[in-house]
Write a structure and sequence with these properties.
By secondary structure, the chain is α/β, with parallel strands linked by helices. The protein is built from six helices and 19 strands. A hairpin with a 2-residue loop joins strand 3 and strand 4.
């Protein structure tokens, strides 16, 4: 559903074409700093939509395959989280335990998923000094691919094409965790650069863009320090109907501050939010704290809610809310409607 623009965006990322304008439109695309958050978000999407799966490049050996002589009970370990490759090669996408497993290109190619979570493994990394994507051959464990290619440039292209394919499996959304910190930083900066160019997020490309829905507009929400929330709507804003899911409730907010500018949300922008009092960990949520409101990336932990800024301004700090704090999640960020 993202269309050709998203395909071009993925290609531009891996071809390092930063200067060429690309957009993700309204595709639900997120880059995660925490692998657990991404896995949790994909499972949440599977509960909502079905057919949400986690995939990766073949960057870890397959210890748990049926004919393996290894005693190791897991295949992938990232920051202490242990995962396993697919337990079957036959129709893995629809197998009973698929949501708890990770698949590579060989079994997922040709399938369409509602949501795909892509782990970009340690075999691909970004050299900031040279501005190049490079490959660690010894961290790529597909023997057919590794042993059959002797030219490093050919292997680099082969692995990049694998990820281009994996990143285009999701119909509704694509979630990404990148093992290499420099590559993760590059991808997030590339995403912010593209998001800031969408005004609004490619709504004009939809065949339904002419049909509009009136949404209450509230003033305002803090994207920085907490800001007193105006709970009375004094105006409305017209939103393309294709952004509105049947049965869901929405509201619009005018933002203040720069604590979410990595998402392209700047001071004075108007954003669309969907009401959701149980927003998933890893989402960008509107949170009421007493009479004040703020938009932050949230992480749900036992007994607490962590508010995480996504900003180039390092003065913004992470805040942890506990059961002693008076807070309530109101909704989740959908997209930016207007630039302030």
């Amino acid at each position: 559903e993202a269309g050709d623009e998203f395909i071009e965006f993925v290609g531009a990322v891996f071809d390092l074409r930063q200067s060429i304008e690309r957009s993700i439109g309204t595709h639900d695309f997120k880059v995660f700093d925490d692998i657990r958050d991404m896995i949790s978000s994909i499972k949440e999407k599977d509960n909502q939509h079905k057919l949400a799966r986690v995939v990766s490049g073949y960057a870890w050996p397959w210890h748990t395959k049926p004919d393996s002589k290894s005693d190791q009970k897991y295949d992938i370990e990232i920051d202490g989280l242990k995962l396993i490759w697919n337990s079957t090669t036959k129709d893995w996408v629809n197998s009973p335990n698929a949501i708890n497993e990770v698949e590579c290109i060989h079994t997922v190619q040709g399938y369409d998923l509602n949501y795909v979570g892509v782990i970009i493994g340690p075999e691909l990394y970004y050299d900031e000094a040279k501005n190049k994507l490079l490959v660690h051959k010894d961290k790529y464990f597909d023997t057919n691919g590794r042993n059959g290619i002797s030219d490093p440039k050919e292997l680099e292209g082969y692995i990049k094409n694998i990820y281009k394919t994996l990143l285009t499996r999701g119909i509704l959304g694509t979630y990404v965790y990148v093992h290499d910190p420099a590559l993760r930083k590059y991808l997030k900066e590339f995403l912010v650069d593209q998001s800031s160019k969408a005004e609004p997020k490619t709504a004009v490309l939809s065949p339904y863009a002419g049909e509009m829905v009136s949404i209450d507009l509230f003033d305002s929400i803090g994207c920085g320090e907490l800001m007193h929330a105006n709970t009375a709507s004094e105006e409305t804003i017209d939103v393309p109907a294709w952004l509105i899911k049947p049965g869901a409730k929405y509201f619009a907010l005018r933002t203040r501050g720069d604590s979410m500018n990595e998402l392209g949300i700047n001071d004075g922008d108007i954003i669309l939010c969907q009401k959701n009092f149980q927003a998933a960990s890893g989402s960008n949520a509107v949170v009421m704290i007493g009479d004040d409101a703020t938009l932050k990336h949230i992480k749900v932990e036992k007994g607490s809610l962590v508010l995480i800024p996504r900003s180039t301004n390092k003065e913004h700090e992470i805040r942890r809310l506990t059961e002693d704090d008076e807070f309530k999640v109101l909704g989740v960020f959908v997209c930016k409607l207007e630039t302030g």
